[in-house]
Structures are given as structure tokens and as C-alpha cells.
């Protein structure tokens, strides 16, 4: 398992994780109930078969995973069933039920349909560097990252995690790189970008498989467009698209990172997951250091 997106949060390194092993068994994912829409809780980072291993730590990096079960009950299906009942009442009783009665009928339908609904499972993984105070969630969604932070907050009682706070405007930096300013050591341009007119409702230009130092791109910059997403390569280890929200999307681990897995000395699934964990956290940590220095990302306290 390799992370495909990185939404990063800062939290105080003084946050106490010493009781996490004791607390996790009381916050595990429970099967969604017959009359429930969803259920959330911690699961093993190693998968469903490892029900007793609810966290994993190597050095300063802690790996947690939050699982979810959601009933699939489309609103259109509920509304269609409700409309059939309303039509039946109108035909047999000659009246259209009031708004309050329709709401009660809809609630009754939900209770009737929920036990028969299909269940969709999900998981969200997070790597936490306890020394840096850095949480890295495998998602491109701020909402999902906050949901993970909320789960950890519920587990520990306190987890004041905040989105990355850059002292330098990310959009200005990304735009300057395309305009010809030198990139930080280790970073090179990829072949994808998104440019936006800064005015509300302005034009949006998306380029893929495009040499970014070219006249076509420069004309958009001269017209006032700013770069909101930019493909980058970090050494020969990572390729990704960095947004002006500092969320890393389309993350790929390249040969420079994957070659390190060849030094795996032990066989077995657990050993392989350990190796991938070490490689990922090592590369993500190095990338964060570059981003933190470039955008002057402040700590969470």
C-alpha cells in the first residue's frame, strides 16, 4: 500500500500518544447496525485479518487507520418509494398527505429500507511524525483529513491539528517557478499545470503532457493567470501535483524510492509492509522538509 495523496496537518509535538495502544481497543470500528446509516472506528493498518494490531510505529512515525461502513441508500430510491405511497393514499383516500405526515412516512421508509441496504467499506490512513508534529493523511480532501483528525481527537481527548500555514503565498511561488525562477534543490518541473484568472469566475486553463517553459504558457502568465496546481518531481523518488492549498495529489513513488525495497532482507507480507512504511515515511519526511523551507510553513503552536 502506497499513499496516493498527501493532506498534511501540524499538531504540537508535545501531544501525548503514550496511551494510544491502551485506548485503541475501545475505539475500534463496529459493524454498522441494522438501523444505522454509518459506523466509524479504528482498524488495523495491516488489513482486516490483523484484528489485534491497531497501530504500527517505527521510530518517530506512527501509522493509524480509520475504517468506515456506510449504507448505500440512494435518496432517489427513497423518494421514489415515498411517491408511490403518496399516490396510493391519494387514490384510495382522495387526499394528499401533509408535510408533517410525509416526513413521518419518509422516516418509516428509511427504517424499512436500511436493514436491506448494501454496505460500503472504506478506510483512511494517516502517518504521524511525533517529533515533528506532522500528520499526513492519504487523501486529497481537506474534509477527509479533518475527519481523520477528529477521530484521533476523540481517541486522545485532545488533538489540536491544523492545516499547513504558509507564510509565503503558494500560488505566487508556483507561478514564479513556471515563469523561470529557480526551484529548490531536488525539485524539477513536471508536465502538468492548472492556471486560473484571479478574478472570480475567471478562466481556468489545464495543461497535461505539456512542456511548461514555452511561449504558450508564457502568454497565459502575461494575461495575468496564476498557477494553482503544478506537477513536480522530487529527485528521482517522487512525482506529484502540488496545489496552492499545499495538498499533494497524484503521488507516485519512482524508482529512486522503490529501489530501496530491494534491500528487504526478510520475506513475508508483514516485512513487506514494514519496508513500504519505512520507505514512504522517509520520502514524505524529506519532501515535507523541502516544502516547509520553501513556503515557510509554521509549526502548530
List keywords for this structure.
301 residues; alpha+beta; 7-stranded antiparallel beta sheet; 5-stranded antiparallel beta sheet; 12 strands; 34% helix
Describe the structure.
The structure is a single chain. This protein is α+β, with helices and mostly antiparallel strands and 301 residues long. Helix 2 packs across helix 3 (99-113). Helix content is 34%, strand content 26%. Strands 1, 2, 3, 4, 5, 6 and 7 form a seven-stranded antiparallel sheet that branches. The mean pLDDT is 91.
Give the strand content. 25-35%
Largest beta-sheet characterization: 7 strands, antiparallel
How much helical structure, as a percent, in the residues?
25-40%
> What would you call the structural class?
alpha+beta
Low-confidence stretches: none
Mean pLDDT: 91
Number of helices: 8
Radius of gyration from the alpha-carbon trace, in angstroms:
24 Å
Q: Could you state the order of secondary-structure elements as H and E?
A: EHEEEHHEEHEHEEHEEEHH
Number of E-state strands: 12
Looking at the structure, what is the overall shape? globular
Q: Measure the end-to-end span.
A: 32 Å
Amino acid at each position: 500500500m502506497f499513499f496516493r495523496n498527501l493532506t498534511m496537518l501540524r499538531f504540537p509535538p508535545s501531544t501525548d500518544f503514550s496511551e494510544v495502544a491502551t485506548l485503541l481497543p475501545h475505539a475500534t470500528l463496529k459493524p454498522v447496525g441494522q438501523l444505522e446509516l454509518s459506523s466509524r472506528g479504528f482498524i488495523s493498518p495491516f488489513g482486516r485479518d490483523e484484528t489485534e494490531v491497531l497501530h504500527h510505529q517505527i521510530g518517530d512515525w506512527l501509522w493509524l487507520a480509520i475504517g468506515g461502513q456506510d449504507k448505500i441508500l440512494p435518496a432517489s430510491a427513497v423518494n421514489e418509494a415515498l411517491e408511490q405511497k403518496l399516490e396510493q393514499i391519494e387514490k384510495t383516500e382522495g387526499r394528499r398527505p401533509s408535510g408533517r405526515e410525509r416526513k413521518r412516512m419518509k422516516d418509516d421508509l428509511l427504517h424499512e429500507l436500511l436493514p436491506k441496504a448494501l454496505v460500503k467499506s472504506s478506510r483512511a490512513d494517516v502517518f504521524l511524525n511525533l517529533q515533528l508534529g506532522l500528520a499526513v493523511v492519504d487523501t486529497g480532501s481537506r474534509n477527509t483529513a479533518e475527519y481523520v483528525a477528529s477521530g484521533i481527537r476523540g481517541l486522545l481527548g485532545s488533538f489540536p491539528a491544523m492545516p499547513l500555514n504558509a507564510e509565503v503565498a503558494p500560488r505566487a511561488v508556483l507561478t514564479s517557478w513556471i515563469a523561470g525562477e529557480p526551484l529548490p534543490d531536488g525539485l524539477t518541473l513536471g508536465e502538468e499545470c492548472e492556471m486560473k484568472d484571479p478574478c472570480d469566475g475567471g478562466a481556468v486553463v489545464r495543461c497535461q503532457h505539456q512542456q511548461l517553459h514555452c511561449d504558450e504558457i508564457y502568454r497565459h502568465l502575461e494575461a495575468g493567470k496564476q498557477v494553482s496546481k503544478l506537477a513536480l518531481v522530487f529527485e528521482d523518488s517522487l512525482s506529484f501535483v502540488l496545489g496552492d492549498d499545499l495538498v499533494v495529489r497524484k503521488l507516485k513513488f519512482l524508482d529512486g524510492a522503490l529501489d530501496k525495497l530491494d534491500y528487504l532482507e526478510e520475506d513475508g507480507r508483514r516485512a513487506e509492509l514494514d519496508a513500504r512504511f519505512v520507505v514512504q515515511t522517509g520520502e514524505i519526511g524529506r519532501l515535507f522538509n523541502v516544502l516547509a523551507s520553501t513556503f515557510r510553513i509554521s509549526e502548530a503552536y
